[in-house]
Amino acid sequence: xxxxxxxxxxxxxxxxxxxxxxxxxxxxxxxxxxxxxxxxxxxxxxxxxxxxxxxxxxxxxxxxxxxxxxxxxxxxxxxxxxxxxxxxxxxxxxxxxxxxxxxxxxxxxxxxxxxxxxxxxxxxxxxxxxxxxxxxxxxxxxxxxxxxxxxxxxxxxxxxxxxxxxxxxxxxxxxxxxxxxxxxxxxxxxxxxxxxxxxxxxxxxxxx
Length: 208
Hints:
8-stranded mixed β-sheet, two-stranded parallel ribbon, alpha+beta
């Protein structure tokens, strides 16, 4: 069952994430979605990198607005994707990816563990739990300047630890490419894989 949501408000003085380090157009997207009554968070790698005082390459946004609702709000957007539809919003040469909260994948193929079927829209909590590693499942509410952590990702960031969300064996069987992602994050960020993740990666390396 999902863990209790943890919301980290900034302490008095310096906020956890400096708003000036967030691309202004990403903030503009979040603000417009919020004004229209939708939840909207910065999500994934950009939140991880901001908390580590790194410079994100991209600023992805997750929301409870559907792709069609997003497109109605932003004339500079287009809907893409076959397996899962999402919106690309363009400001000049830069494109921002805005996805609707997703439910966990369900292969529906019995013994076949791989993710093959379309994902479906879900809740904020479901979206966090269907991601691969805890450090990539953090949300940032830029309007309230708070981190929203459903999976214990902040503790893993502080410990410089790479951990799967849920059972490592299951997550790597779903998508063996996560083994390469784990190696890349460990190398780039100087993080240690948990023993469970390291052992599962060794067992399933042949699945690649």
